[in-house]
């Protein structure tokens, strides 16, 4: 990876989810990580995973590896997008996305009207 290529830099998934949530909805995720906020971050992580590769750094000394899309079927993001439990019960941590992918996903979510999800008020 080119150290100067910001698009290839990895961003922790919880941070990426909070960033996407803010940039798409204009709402800030509560920094206390209460139950509602953790659920929102997991929902956003699920949306991101449908659009861009999610990586894991397990074990931590290895290079990030993309999680195969088939592994995401039946998987659950948990703990505010800090972990992913696969269908077979395997838990993956240290989840990331690449910055360039995150930017593309945010653009897609905005384009598709994600900020106007049912049950959410839209002002302006």
Please provide a brief summary of the model.
The protein is α+β, with helices and mostly antiparallel strands and 124 residues long. The chain has three helices and seven strands; from the N terminus they run βααββββββα. It is globular.
Question: What would you say this structure looks like, in words?
Answer:
By secondary structure, the chain is α+β, with helices and mostly antiparallel strands. The chain has one domain. Helix content is 35%, strand content 16%. It is built from 3 helices and 7 strands. The protein has helices spanning 13-25, 35-51, 99-111; strands at 10-12, 55-56, 65-66, 76-78, 83-85, 91-93, 95-98. The strands form 2 sheets. It has a 4-stranded antiparallel sheet. α1 (13-25) crosses α2 and α1 runs parallel beside α3 (99-111). The N and C termini lie far apart (42 Å). Mean pLDDT is 88; it is low at 120-124.
Number of helices: 3
Shape: globular
> What structural class is derived from the secondary structure elements?
alpha+beta
SSE pattern: EHHEEEEEEH
Q: What is the straight-line distance between the termini? A: 42 Å
Strand-residue fraction?
A: 15-25%
> How many domains make up the 3D coordinates?
1
How much helicity do the residues have? 25-40%
Radius of gyration: 14 Å
Spans of at least 5 consecutive residues whose pLDDT stays below 50 are: 120-124
Averaging pLDDT over every residue, what do you get?
88
């Amino acid at each position: 990876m080119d150290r100067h290529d910001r698009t290839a830099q990895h961003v922790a998934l919880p941070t990426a989810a909070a960033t996407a949530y803010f940039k798409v909805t204009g709402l800030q995720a509560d920094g206390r990580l209460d139950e509602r906020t953790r659920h929102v971050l997991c929902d956003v992580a699920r949306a991101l995973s449908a659009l861009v590769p999610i990586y894991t750094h397990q074990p931590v000394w290895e290079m990030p590896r993309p999680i195969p899309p088939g592994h995401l079927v039946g998987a659950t993001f948990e703990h505010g997008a800090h972990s992913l439990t696969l269908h077979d019960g395997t838990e993956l941590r240290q989840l990331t996305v690449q910055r360039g992918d995150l930017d593309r996903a945010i653009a897609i979510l905005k384009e598709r009207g994600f900020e106007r999800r049912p049950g959410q008020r839209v002002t302006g």
